[in-house]
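Morning run. Coffee first, then this:
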Amino acid sequence: MPFVDFAELKTRVSIEEAMQMLGLNLTLNGGQYRGACPTCRSGGDRALIITPAKGLFYCFAKKTGGDVIALTAHIRGIGVKDAAEELHRAFGTVQNGTSTVSKSRATAPQAPEARKQPAFDPEAYAARLDASHASLASLGISAETLKAWKAGHASSGTNRGRLAIALRDRDGNILGFAGRSLGDEQPSLTIPNGINPQEIIFGADRVEAGTLYLVRDVLDVLKAHESGVTNCVCFLTDITALQVEMLAALMATKHCDTVELF
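And here it is:
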């Protein structure tokens, strides 16, 4: 098998073309294809999300996502190299060999400037976090995504040895940094003093009109976002009546028609 240029392949084969090749029968809704995952056979009839505009997919059942090659690997149950070769065989080679194609990468929207407190500068704190730290590799989240969410490995302070991640209000202002454990350490999530976790819906500042996805963990929100599912949020505690009211208010404000639970 000849060498397959992954970057060139992803510019040549759209994720919608791969959907047809893979025989995926999904429903288009609000710019995203949704349906059951034929590989996982769990998670319900909307577990698989494909976002053509970003060329990405996400499977809530497996909690994995990625580009057109990753989608092929996931559905076929094969490695990414074999998936790339299958796409290459199915869609041929570039016809115009003189053109130069660059790999385009979806980037997360730039967050609003954080509100600064006299005794604590959240931007300075975020700048000290290491999004490429070796201990974060097992999370399966890119350094680019972690940086976009103001997250990274903390080497000092109350979050030392944890994934520190910004907590924001619905306007995008940073309230503080939670600490997510990287193993079995308890509690799995620590909240800064002075912040009531029941008053926060993580990811609410990024919600737009359409279906809202409610997951169980901040890491699930980041993984979904990285795979093109931007309307994904989670609570930081067990669900309370107050949080249900907050979620309903968020959906009404952002014009979210339905909510899917994972």
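Residues 94-118 have pLDDT under 50 and may be disordered. Good start to the day.
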